[in-house]
Design brief:
Structural class: alpha+beta
Number of strands: 8
Largest sheet: 8 strands, mixed
Distance between the termini: 29 Å
Shape: flat
Helix content: 10-25%
Strand content: 25-35%
Order of helices and strands: HEEEEEHEEEHH
Strand order of the largest sheet: 3-4-2-1-6-7-8-5
Number of helices: 4
C-alpha cells in the first residue's frame, strides 16, 4: 500500500462520518532543469507531509473566485492515444519566471506530475503526500506572458505566467484497441516494451478472460 493510501486511511480512521471535513485538492509539480514549481488548487501556501511547499493558484475571493490555472482531464493512456495537454501556470514569482525564460531548454523534456492531496477544510497542511499521480513530459519548451494590472493607487502590478504542453509518459504503451486485450496486441506490447519476440504466453490471454486457469 502506498504512503498516500496509508495517510488517507489514517485520516479517515481518525474522524467520524458526522465530523469529517476532508477535501481533495489538485496539485501540479513541474521539475524543470534548475527549478521545481509546485502548485495546488487552494489559496496561499500548502505544506505536504514531506515538507514541500505548494503555492495556491486560487485567489481566495468568495465573491469573485478566480483560478489561475486549469487542470485538464487526463485520459487513460492505455487506450493507445497520446493527447497533448496544455497547462498555463499563472502566476509564478518573477525570479522563477526570468530563470525559466532565460534558458530555452529549461522546460523542454521536463517532467510534469499531476495528482491530489487530502486536507481538512480551511487547513493549509495536507494530511497526505501527493497521490493518484499522472506523469507527463513537456514537449516543445514553454511560452511566456506578462500581465500588467493598474492598481487603485496608480501603480502597476506585473504578473507572470508560463504555458507548457505535455504528453503522458505512458501514452500508447499498451496499444490496446477498443479497450480489449488480445494475443496479437500482447505480442506487440511484449516486443515493443521488452524486446520479447513472438511471446508464447499471449495465447493464454483469451483463456484467462474466459475463466480458464492454467496449471504449470
Amino acid at each position: 500500500m502506498s504512503s498516500f493510501s496509508e495517510a488517507l486511511n489514517s485520516a479517515l480512521d481518525a474522524t467520524q462520518n458526522s465530523d469529517r471535513s476532508l477535501i481533495c485538492a489538485a496539485v501540479i509539480e513541474i521539475v524543470f532543469k534548475t527549478e521545481t514549481v509546485r502548485l495546488w488548487s487552494g489559496t496561499g501556501g500548502l505544506i505536504t507531509p514531506d515538507g514541500e511547499r505548494w503555492v495556491g493558484w486560487s485567489n481566495g475571493d468568495p465573491d469573485n473566485p478566480q483560478s489561475f490555472i486549469d487542470v485538464p482531464d487526463i485520459s487513460d493512456p492505455r487506450d493507445g492515444n497520446s493527447p497533448l495537454y496544455e497547462f498555463t501556470l499563472g502566476y509564478i514569482d518573477e525570479e522563477s519566471y526570468q530563470r525559466l525564460k532565460s534558458d530555452a531548454d529549461e522546460a523542454n523534456d521536463a517532467v510534469l506530475n499531476v495528482g491530489n492531496v487530502y486536507l481538512e477544510g480551511n487547513s493549509t497542511r495536507a494530511l497526505t503526500p501527493p497521490g493518484n499521480k499522472e506523469r507527463l513530459r513537456i514537449v516543445g519548451g514553454a511560452s511566456f506572458s506578462e500581465k500588467r494590472t493598474l492598481m487603485e493607487d496608480g501603480s502597476h502590478k506585473l504578473q507572470y505566467s508560463v504555458s507548457v504542453k505535455a504528453k503522458n509518459v505512458n501514452g500508447g504503451r499498451s496499444r490496446v484497441s477498443f479497450s480489449t486485450f488480445t494475443d496479437t496486441t500482447h505480442k506487440f506490447r511484449s516486443s515493443t516494451l521488452f524486446g520479447v519476440q513472438n511471446d508464447d504466453y499471449a495465447q493464454f490471454i483469451a483463456r484467462y478472460a474466459g475463466g480458464i486457469t492454467l496449471t504449470i
